[in-house]
């Protein structure tokens, strides 16, 4: 286990180091036109980064780190909501597809996932806005919270902030925040949901072939009982690590979703920074996102190994 | 479980129909097309900055009456002009309160020091605040206020005197523009002592109907009602500028009620707005012009034949139909026909590619040339879609062998380019701040406006300059008109810029919004607005 952890951390740090090197090389080439010494400059750059100094935004005149702290929670809120939706929808649908393998339900679900996977995020977003906001008038077009409510961000996650504030209309504000979250989270959830369905389906099919499932069925347990108690429980550990890797994809499509829905998160902030040629913000933003994705996928990996020790076998086998 | 599901979905669908109605009634959501890049209109050149700041945060010595178009008292109770036209004396209104904000608590009401401070900053190069935030005051630099006003001094706590170097008929009108706001001298002193003078333009303090409560860059501005406002009667408790650059999204928000008022609706959206029973569309004659400004200091545009060839190549009617959907008119001059200075005897030539080709050949450019056309991003009050206009121009010029590269630039970056004079050509224009023709002519073509970046043609013509200066000094209206007619003839002959179109000023809002005035000049005024 220790060797495994060391290997993972090694991977984590070397990737991060490579990332900072890349970021600095770009900056060195673009801003300093390649004059001066590269390595001493890189050292200073790293020192500043480690001290939390991401530079000053030329658009606001404020530290980039503060902006990251302000916009990142909004992106996180969106991603988490999408993840929850994808699990809530994906696990039962994936299970259904596995149980009904080869029948019309399975075909329908598989076709659905293929369509969902190939639909462009921004187009789907616009379509949903047209239907639910403009035509039916059920949900707001964009934003994170109606600007009527003056909520001071504490965590930056509006569904939490609206509940902990002492605003007289905090309950209405909370409902409003939820209403704003629905459409972007649904759009963002499309791709990970299709992935959850496919992973759960294939993992469950694998498990259902096992002898103990047959044994349980011959014992006279109902099919539903066997699938839920024995099948799904053993299929989940196989599916979860691959789902963890989805986080990078989700974060990338979150950027597009944020632009469609004017969600005040990192993606929209980055795009604005690019149009304002705010180099410090662009550098800080990309570094932060890349770091987050690397850290998230490595920790997901470690976490699933800790929870399901059987996965370790694969690692030791790999050690050869 | 089922109960909770039903309850939650009911809540989601009904939304804010219950407790927060009062809040919605006291708040106005204004969907603006862009973020202000300062909170001080003195520094502003773009309408989005003026809309967001000029009438919400500040007051001026004088206002323009929207009906009579004459100056009326605002912070100044009355004013007196000396017989030689060189001295203007203003008596200030007593007891005008500045904003109490998180960053400043005023200890006294407005007095003469504040007025002196606000104008000295503009005209005095040695003033400690003159160079703060860049030291460029596009409007006042372009009309040459520094050369006109000799000094501003306080004669008493409520008496201010402006001393001019020469008589100027447009002076009083210019004091009523959006740019001529009065700032707090006390606040400025405090900032100077703290070593942060630039905050004067970022964390504003004024005497206007609202004060700044919250600003999130490129996202929204939240204003709260100024409780001690001298005019009183501000119905809105909060005013929120929701920054929504895309006009389709502004319209969507207006339709769903996420916006109460929408700035600059696009011409293509008129039909939707008119057909919707809950929306109101206001149109007013706008005194504006959109132009293609050619850099007359740069080859090949320093050749009048090339400029005339371009003017002959373009079809202003195409642009009017495709970009403005026919709402507006083709421009025959920089001044629109509603202006009293408009010269009706001048007409722009009709498109004539043959003649344009001949002129280019005369200039030795029969094979055409390459050029870059700069376009401001987003909608402007005088041009709803710069990119589309640019593409139409590109198509027309291609026929003459002129290869146009379009480059879309953010307001701030564009202004930097224009001030440096690096451009070939730029799509620009002007919305008049006063009914005075001087406002358009001076800002678009005056010599002083070159450094300010508003004269994007960089055209400084001694005869033209002579005419517009003479017009300012002229004692009678007839004489002023004569000078403006001559000035327009000079533009027509030299064609430093190609006037394209005039359009109407438009504003769309929800029927629940009342008492919204669409001003023919200047930025939006929301102090009287209320909701039902």
TrEMBL record, chain A:
PROSITE patterns: ABC_TM1 (PS50928). InterPro entries: MetI-like (IPR000515), MetI-like_sf (IPR035906). Residues 72-304 form the ABC transmembrane type-1 domain. The chain crosses the membrane at residues 49-68, 80-99, 119-139, 238-261, 281-303. The keyword Cell inner membrane applies. Its main location: membrane. Keywords: Cell inner membrane, Cell membrane, Membrane, Transmembrane, Transmembrane helix, Transport. GO terms for molecular function: dipeptide transmembrane transporter activity. One of its GO terms (cellular component) is plasma membrane. It holds the Pfam family BPD_transp_1. It is found in: Cell inner membrane; Cell membrane. It is a multi-pass membrane protein. Belongs to the binding-protein-dependent transport system permease family. OppBC subfamily. This is Peptide ABC transporter permease. It comes from Oceanimonas doudoroffii. The lineage of its organism: Bacteria, Pseudomonadati, Pseudomonadota, Gammaproteobacteria, Aeromonadales.
TrEMBL record, chain B:
Signal peptide: none annotated. InterPro entries: Peptide/Ni-bd, SBP_5, SBP_5_dom. One of its GO terms (biological process) is peptide transport. It holds the Pfam family SBP_bac_5. GO terms for cellular component: ATP-binding cassette (ABC) transporter complex; outer membrane-bounded periplasmic space. CDD domains: PBP2_DppA_like. GO terms for molecular function: peptide transmembrane transporter activity. SUPFAM superfamilies: Periplasmic binding protein-like II. Residues 70-449 form the Solute-binding protein family domain. This is ABC transporter substrate-binding protein. It comes from Oceanimonas doudoroffii. The lineage of its organism: Bacteria, Pseudomonadati, Pseudomonadota, Gammaproteobacteria, Aeromonadales.
